[in-house]
C-alpha cells in the first residue's frame, strides 16, 4: 500500500460548504468585538485577555506532549503513556507491542500545549491496521483553545471505545498511525505505534 493511501486514511472528514476562517493571532482575537460582553467571557475562558497575549508566533501552534490509553480495568498503578519526544519507545512498540486487554472499555487521552494563536478545528485521527488492512478509524475534535496563561498543558479525554475480543482478535498485532491536524491540513504531530490484544493487561 502506498504512503498516499495511508495519507488518505488520515485526512479529516469535511463538511460540505464549510470554509475555515483566516487564522488570527491571540492579540487579534483579544481586540476583536471587544465591546461584546458574552464574547469577552468566552475569550477569557480561552486565556485571551487584552494585553496578556503574546504576538510571538514562532514555532507550531500546537505541541502534542503525550498520548495515554486509560481504562477502568487497568491494574492499580499501571499506566500506558507515550511521551511523544521518546521516539525510541514509540519505535520499540513495533517489536514489543503494548498489551491491551480484550473486550474492555478504554479511552484515548492526549496532553498538548497551545503555543500561540487560537486553535479551532484541530482534531485527533487514529487509523488502526492489521496485516495492512484498515480495521478502525477514530476521529475526535480537540475543541477551541488559546495559549494557557499559566503555561500548563491541556488534557483532552476522548469518548470511550471497546477493544475487540476473541481468539482471532488476539492473534497478531495491530499497527496504529496517530495524527493531530487542523482544518487547513496543518499537521502538528504524526506518529506510529503498535499494540496486541491479550486476555489480561
Automatic annotation (TrEMBL):
This protein's name: Rho GDP-dissociation inhibitor
Region (Disordered): 1-26
Organism classification: Eukaryota, Fungi, Dikarya, Basidiomycota, Agaricomycotina
Gene3D superfamilies (UniProt xref): Coagulation Factor XIII, subunit A, domain 1
GO CC terms, sorted: cytosol; membrane
Matches recorded under InterPro entries: Ig_E-set, Rho_GDI, RhoGDI_dom_sf
UniProt source species: Hypsizygus marmoreus (White beech mushroom)
A GO BP annotation: Rho protein signal transduction
Molecular function per GO: Rho GDP-dissociation inhibitor activity
Amino acid at each position: 500500500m502506498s504512503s498516499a493511501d495511508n495519507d488518505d486514511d488520515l485526512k479529516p472528514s469535511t463538511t460540505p460548504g464549510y470554509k475555515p476562517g483566516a487564522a488570527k493571532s491571540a492579540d487579534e482575537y483579544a481586540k476583536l468585538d471587544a465591546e461584546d460582553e458574552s464574547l469577552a467571557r468566552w475569550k477569557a475562558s480561552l486565556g485571551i485577555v487584552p494585553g496578556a497575549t503574546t504576538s510571538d508566533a514562532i514555532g507550531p501552534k500546537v505541541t502534542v506532549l503525550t498520548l495515554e490509553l486509560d481504562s477502568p480495568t487497568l491494574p492499580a498503578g499501571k499506566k500506558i503513556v507515550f511521551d511523544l519526544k521518546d521516539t525510541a519507545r514509540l519505535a520499540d512498540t513495533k517489536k514489543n507491542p503494548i498489551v491491551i486487554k480484550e473486550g474492555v472499555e478504554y479511552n484515548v487521552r492526549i496532553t498538548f500545549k497551545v503555543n500561540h494563536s487560537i486553535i479551532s478545528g484541530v482534531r485527533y485521527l487514529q487509523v488502526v491496521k492489521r496485516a495492512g488492512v484498515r480495521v478502525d478509524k477514530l476521529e475526535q475534535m480537540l475543541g477551541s483553545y488559546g495559549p494557557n496563561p499559566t503555561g500548563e498543558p491541556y488534557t483532552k479525554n476522548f469518548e470511550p471505545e471497546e477493544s475487540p475480543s476473541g481468539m482471532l482478535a488476539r492473534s497478531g498485532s495491530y499497527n496504529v498511525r496517530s495524527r493531530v491536524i487542523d482544518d487547513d491540513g496543518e499537521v502538528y504531530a504524526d506518529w506510529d505505534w503498535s499494540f496486541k490484544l491479550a486476555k489480561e493487561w
